[in-house]
Amino acid sequence: MNRRTLGYSFLLILVALSSTQVSAQTAVSIAELKNYELGLQQPEVADMVPGAPLLATYQPMTQKHLVIANPFENAHVQFAVTDGTRVNLGQRIATITGPSVEHFFHRLETVKAQYDVAQQQHKSKYSLYQRNALSADDWQNFLDQYLRLSDQMHEIKILLSRFHQLADDSAELKAPIDGVWQSDADDMRIGYVIDRSEIRLAVQAPNELASSVHHISVQGERFTIDYREQSTRNGFTTLWSSPLTESTFTLYQRMSVVPLRNIANAFKVPGSAVSSLNGEPVVFSVDKQTIHPIPVSVSAVEGEDYYVAASTSLDNPIVTHSVAALKGIIDSREEAQQ
Prior knowledge:
alpha+beta; conserved putative lor/sdh protein from methanococcus maripaludis s2 fold; 3 domains; seven-stranded antiparallel beta sheet; disordered N terminus; MFP_Cation_Efflux; Membrane fusion-like protein
């Protein structure tokens, strides 16, 4: 063993002896506090520690919305719901009135009649083609027309599932799915329905905090963080909560939420249990007949309780009363030794 190794080993032994001396100096016998009420209490393990409030917005996570095209020209749209309102399948969203409504439904009937005729012709023309009584070009031309009509009928079925004619010049738009309604200023679209599963809380968390936030609390409810965006902006990361399918929030509403973090050896203790020694926060743990100070860091305050992260697991009861007297005994010892 060389001289450098010997020196390092001596330093470790010295540190260990110093730690033992400090522990012995700060340990207090319960007998010294026999005239005091200690209020022993078992610390509560904190699975989540609340932090300072963060700003969140109730909004869609993606742009995968069900767009409602406007098939009417110069028609008046009277909305029955406001933007950001929850709608259920089949619920009336708007009433549309104008001459173009009658023209629209008449055109749908015409296309439907053409498709019915084409369906009847399909079997007979195919039979003629099989017997070489119909040329390949004529059969192909018929198929092209038939497929175009089929595509139009598919679109018509979608439109008829959304728009229902009330009178010659009026119709109503019904919600095609459960979701949240949002109108559109573009004349080509009436609006769109956002699937409720896409609407979440977008939380702006400081970069140094983002990785440790696993849940958020808002109005007494807890929600899981489902996704963290990889990119950051101005020192903040966007965290997305789990879907709020039953929320009463309005679309794009802003609010404060409480981040909940996972912290090792975190406990919830009465504020009266936290004291300080040499400027560092501690709690006093009772092991049999001896009281030991345990260094902690205060992570959050909630009413009269503190959330602390301890240097070791707090398995034993802690002192919640007469903490000032206990601190006074230890401070007096240290002053006497100086």
